[in-house]
Amino acid sequence: MKFKKTSIWFVLLTTALIFFQCGSKTAPDYLFGVWTTPDEKYADRFMEIERTTITFGIGEGKSNTYPIIRVKIEKTPSDKGILHTIYYRNEEGLKTTFAFYYDPANRGQIRLKYRDHIVWKKEKK
After folding, report:
1. Is 31 helix (H, G, I), strand (E, B) or coil?
2. More confident call, 73 vs 19
3. 75 Cβ contact partners less than 8 Å away, ≥ 6 residues apart
4. CA–centroid distance for 11 within its chain
5. According to the model, what pLDDT value does residue 80 have?
6. What is the fold, at CATH topology level, of the domain defined by 25-122?
7. Which stretches of the chain are DSSP H helices?
8. Residue 23: band (very low, low, confident or very high) from pLDDT cuts 50, 70, 90
9. In the chain, where are the structural domains located?
10. Between vectors from CA 70 to CA 19 and to CA 105, what angle results, nearest 5°?
11. How many CB atoms lie within 10 A of CB 116?
12. Which of 75, 84, 99, 101 could form a disulfide with 113 if both were Cys (CB 3.0 to 4.6 A apart)?
């Protein structure tokens, strides 16, 4: 009987670890919406995050939408916010990542991991 209890706990623990390492297949609600920046360099650009897709406005009224395959959320010692990594499939079907820091202050803001000096804010509905 002791063996069965140990086996059940092992299976539950392993399942929990796999779940937390894999992340979610959908974006969290607080990210839903269109994100823009006042930075002139990105005046005609945007990011739109929905439950299962991410869209990038690439300028001249054009955009690309991709299916989200995984979202990983990590707390970091950084004061930039919580690190989010969205994994999606690009036009060629290759797994691609989009990493950014999310800070919930002031209705939320995003700073791209490798361009963290630019602040993106969610547009009001």
Report:
1. helix
2. 73
3. 82, 83
4. 29
5. 79
6. Lipocalin (2.40.128)
7. 2-22
8. low
9. 25-122
10. 95
11. 14
12. 99
